[in-house]
Every structure is written in structure tokens, then in C-alpha cells.
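2024-03-11 09:14:02 INFO receiving multi-entity request
2024-03-11 09:14:02 INFO entity count = two
2024-03-11 09:14:03 INFO echoing inputs for audit
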Amino acid sequence: MSRALLSVEGLRVGFRSAGGGVVEAVRGVDFSVAAGEAVGIVGESGSGKSLSMLAAMRLLGTPARVTGGRVLFDGEDLLAADEKRMRALRGRDIAMVFQDPQSSLNPALTIGRQITDVVREHRGVSSAEARRIAAEALERVGIRDAGRRLASYPHEFSGGMRQRALIAMAIACRPRLLIADEPTTALDVTVQAQIVDLIAELRRELGLTIVFISHNLQLVAEIVDRVVVMYGGKVVEDGPVEAIERAPRHPYTILLKACVPSLFGPVGPLTAIEGAPPRLGRLPAGCPFSPRCPHVIEPCTSEMPALIAEAGHRTACWRPR
Amino acid sequence: MTGPILSLRCVSKSFPQGGLFDRLLGRDSRLVALDDVSLDVMRGDVVGIVGESGSGKSTLAGLAVGLARPTSGEVLFDGQSMAELMRDHAGPWRRRVQMVFQDSSSALNPRKSVARCLGETLALRGVPAGQRQNEIADLLTRVGLGPEIGPRLPHELSGGQRQRVGLARALAMKPEVLIADEPVSALDVSLQAQVINLLSRLTRELGLTLLFISHDLALVRTLCSRIVVMRKGTIVEQGPCLDVLDRPQHPYTQAFIAAVPKGLAGRRTPLPVRADAVAPETREDIHGAA
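2024-03-11 09:21:47 INFO inference complete, emitting structure
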């Protein structure tokens, strides 16, 4: 595998709590993404999956801040870069697509204007050239009659088309890294399938490196090469997609797969994970999954296990399967 | 032979579209949410109503529970016309059909404790004050919650616990029909299974008729005996759940099933060739060939 394009090292994110202390939501996250690789980050709400990437892109809102770690993009520490440098990188080298296409677009500006603004900002081209690039990007994401559609407003697009327009905006500056944060969660299943196909196709054609954040392991496994599973602000497992799908080693990953019903095979009661995901500020000592884990042993409740790598498959568990 | 507990006959429902301005100008248009839908639900049936946004599945739920009236057609509850029943807003029929909503946090009053919320529901059913404490404890046990939940406020509960309270409140009325509108879609994956297993157990134990409204085909397959597939206000296919999902006849059902994420089985990009997946001798062969 080629060298890492993105490398997250010991990243910590905390919120200032009402009592004046700091509540940690991302607690020492390490993973890397090789150039050309597609990596899925899977976790439930509160696992820290979105927060990690927002922190890496320096997009955290006021109550949250990075309390430790490094984020290297092509060798450059993003957490040490100044705001001007970040503005240049975001949108040009690193593009992001978010869950809700409605709130990611300005309702008062045409789709064309919103794409050309980004193109002109980052590529320094004439407005005519920017329009040509914008039309080409819209065309590429499968919007028919793209030249005319530039004049449309977001409300004239369906949810799926809006997400396509945002992906067009993301690829218009030919980024090296695309971060997609639950890009299909707000969409219908049939539209979701189209958007996932589109992302897979763009990856092939443009050689994009992708970070795909989702709560849905089944969905992620359709397009990524490697899966990072997060729980309670920690990476609990990280491995090739086949290993995670066929031979997961962390009890959480195993149960997460078991509690999702299939469209095939025998029907029976679902395997449920007892309890609920930990709440921020009430994380248990030791492994965050220990209160719900059926295989818990002594060190689990007192000491967090390290992420141990074995043939490119990392697991943070005292009793991996 | 008893008839269906719930019956929709050629039911349509449309809503006025556009703002007041449009209507004042006589630019009247209507959004057809349900278009000539007929459906019989037999006592004890566990029916999954599936569809995507705009399919009319939630509109159907609203009509079945008597929250809305059809624009045309007729809804029958246990053989009686819903239109007639609805003249008595708080009539005894209300108790017989209850609903569980998607968003448990907005379906519960944030200022009332769980015990108070359940207590008020029991009072509506006419349970004497002296018996309510016991019934509240029974209801909580039934949905898998401990008595310590009673004094808590909704925001002090997890999403899964809140959804159980919503279910307990519906059960407090001793309904015959339960209508659950996307009851688990706001929950984390690891909590969905808990609530689905609970619904499955309760319908069996209490002999409930359940209308389970969902966009998740795999959940419906796990829980339901019958499935109704909806699209754009019409029923495109219905039948025994496994028959329909394993051998879908309608192209839309087929497309819907094809679109469900399937993990490695639904792989859209080729699996990467991994260096450590290649056996050493094979590696030598490759070198030799080159």
C-alpha cells in the first residue's frame, strides 16, 4: 500500500462542561488512510466518528476543541496550520459532503453560483471557465441537462439531486481526499443506492481517496477497502473490509453485525446488545463497551486495552475473538 | 368467521397544496397522499407497511388510528364506520387502537415523569387511583424497564428507554390494534433489535394486531407476517412477508430490495488485492514471471 495521505494520531476532542471541567468525546483516535484508499468509519451516535473528522478539518464549533494529537495531511499537520492555509486546503485538496444536503446549500443562490464560487476561489479561473467547470461537474454526477440546471435553485432539486450537486461541488476542484459524513442517511433507500454507486464510480474515475462515515456497516462494506469501528470515542477495531465482514474480532463489531437483520436466510429473534451506548461524560472506566459486553473479564472494567495489530487488523480488546 | 379488525375501502386522501396566496388566487391544487387504497387487516395480523418518503404509509397510519379522515372512501374499525365512530371524539373505540410514534422525545411531555404520564393514561381508561401504582409497575416490567424509571423525566432516559415508555403508554389502554409509525428509525442500530424483539414478544403475548410502518425491509421481514409495499399513494404489492420479499413480483418491490445495502454481497467496487493475502510462493511466481 502507498503511504498515508491522511494520518490521525492520538486525536482528542473535548467539550467544556457546565462545571468548568472538560468532557472528552474523542479519546485518542489513531488511524490512517493511504492514498487511493477508501476507508469507512462506522459507529453509533456519540461514538466520535463525525467529531473526529470535523476536528481533523478544523471545523469544530465553539464548545468543542481539540485537546491533543496530530492530523497529518500529506505530511502537513492540519492542527498546526493557520486559518488561511486551512481555507486553501478545504474545498481544494480536501472536500467534504455532509448528511443533510438541504442545509449544506444556500437556498437563496442558484446551484451554479454556489459551485462556481468554490471553483473561482480555489482555481482562480475566469467566470466563464468556472461555469464550464461547474457544468462539467454537474454532468459528471449524473444531472441531465447540466448547463441549464446551473440556473436552478436548491428547492427545485429533489433530495437526491441536491446531494449530487454537493458532490459536484466537492469534485469540481479535483480534491485528493473526499470526506463523506453520512451522505445518504437523509435519503430514501433507492436514492441512497444511486449516490453510493456514484461515489464508487467517481472514486474509480478520479482516483479519489475517500473517508466514508456512517452508522451502517452493511452500506460501508459495499464501497470501502478498510473499516474503522468506533465506540465511546475510541477506535475499537480497524481492518480490511473482508476481515471486518467475515471475521470481526471485537465483541462490539460482532454484535453490531448480529443485531442487524438480513433480507436473506432464516427469520428468528434478533441478537440484541443489552444496555445503551455510553453518554458523553459518563464513560465507564476501562473499555467503553465493557458494560454491554457479554465476554467481560477483570481488566475490561478498569483498563482500556491497546489497539493491537495482527496482519493489518487492529483490535482493542482484552479477549478478542 | 369474524371480519377484518381494520378495513380500508377505496380510501383516498389529498391535502391542499401551495400557500394561502395561491388559494386566494384560485390556483388550487391538491397533493394526493393516498390514491384509492383498499386493505383488510385481520385480528392478530402483524402487518408491515413499507415504502419510501411520499409513499403514503404514514397517511395510512393516521387514517387507521382515526387522526384524520379520508377525502373519499371508507375506513372500518371492527366492522363499524370510522366516520361514525369519530363523531364521539373520546369514545370507547379510541382505547382499542393505539399508536407509537417515531420520535419518542416529542411524543412524551418533557415535564411529566414516566409514572405520571402512564398514570394519566390509566386514569383515562378508568383505572381507580389505588390500583394505578401496581399497573404502572406491571407496564414497565412488560416493556423491559425497571421501577426506577417511574420518577424520571423523558430527557433523563435513553432513546431506547423513551421508545419503551411510548409503547407502555400505548399498552396502558389495553388496545387491540397497535400502530407503530417508524418506531425504531430514530434509534441507534444496537437499540433497534431490542425494541423489535420487544414488539415481537408483545404482539404474541397479548394477541395484538400490529401495523408496523417502516422503510426498513429487513426489519419488516424479521417482525411481520404480512407485508404491504406502497409507492406514491398506492399499494403496489402485498402478501405473506417472506413470499413477497423472496419472490417480489412488482418491479418497484424488486428495485427496493435491490437497493438495500448488503455488505460484501452487495460490493460495488472490486475488493482490493492485499499483499498479505498473497501466499509467499505465489509472490515468487509473480517475480519469476516478471
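2024-03-11 09:21:48 INFO post-check: Chain A has eleven helices and twelve strands.
2024-03-11 09:21:48 INFO post-check: The radius of gyration of chain A is 20 Å.
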